[in-house]
Amino acid sequence: MRVLVVEDEPRIAADIRRGLEQAGFAVDVVGDGEAAWFQADVETYDAMILDLGLPKLDGLSVLRKLRSANNALPVLILTARDGWRERVDGINAGADDYLSKPFRMEELVARLHAILRRTAGQASPILRAGEVELDPRTKLVTVSGEALSLTPLEYRLFAYLLHRRGDVVSAGELLDHVYESGTDREANAIEALVARLRRKLGPAVIETRRGHGYVVPAGLQ
C-alpha cells in the first residue's frame, strides 16, 4: 500500500515517513500544496496524509481540487489547527478523517488503517484468505496460525491484493502501489514477488489470470 505525505515541516515529515514505513507502507513525501496536487494527479496512491498549513497552495484547496476532479483518494487531514470550524471545513471539503498535532504515531497509523478498511469495504481489522491471515496493526501474516516472515515488498503486495480480494489486479497496478516514486520498477519484479509469496503462502492463495494479472479469490476457503 502506497501513501502520499504532504507536510512542509521536514522533521515531522521524516517522522511520519519513518513510522509509516515501519508499518509496512510505501511512502512518498512532498512539502507544498502545488507538488501535492501534481503528485496525486500523475501518480497512484492508496491514501494521502495532508497538512492544511502548506506553502503555495493550502491543504483545503488541494483537497477541494482533488474532489472537484472526482479523485476519491482517501485523505487524512493532519494539522495544528484544532478548532471545530477547521474540522468541519475539512470534512465538508471531502476529508475522510482528521487528526490534530501533536499526535501519536500509533494513532495516525490506526486511523489510516481504518480509512483503508472502509474504502475496501472491510469490517474486520484482520484480512483473511482461507487459512491465511494478515493483521495490518502488527504486520503479522500467519498460515494456519503459523507466523510467516515476509520482506517489506512481499508484505505490501500481499496486503494490496487482500484489500482488493476478488478483483484481478494487473502487474502495472501492483507496481504503482508497491513501490515508492523514483524506484526502478520492472513488471517481472512483480512476477518474482508473487512466486516467492506462493512458496510461503501456498500456491492457491494468489491466482494468475493470464494476460490480466493476479487475484486472491473471493471464495477461497
Automatic annotation (TrEMBL):
DNA-binding residue intervals: 124-218
Keyword terms of this UniProt record: DNA-binding, Phosphoprotein, Transcription, Transcription regulation, Two-component regulatory system
All copies of domain Response regulatory, residue ranges: 2-116
Gene3D superfamilies: 3.40.50.2300, 6.10.250.690, Winged helix-like DNA-binding domain superfamily/Winged helix DNA-binding domain
Alphabetized PROSITE patterns for the sequence: OMPR_PHOB (PS51755), RESPONSE_REGULATORY (PS50110)
A Pfam family the protein falls into: Response_reg
OmpR/PhoB-type domain: residues covered: 124-218
Protein's GO biological process: regulation of DNA-templated transcription
Record-listed 4-aspartylphosphate modification sites: 51
GO molecular function, one term: phosphorelay response regulator activity
The name this protein goes by in its record: DNA-binding response OmpR family regulator
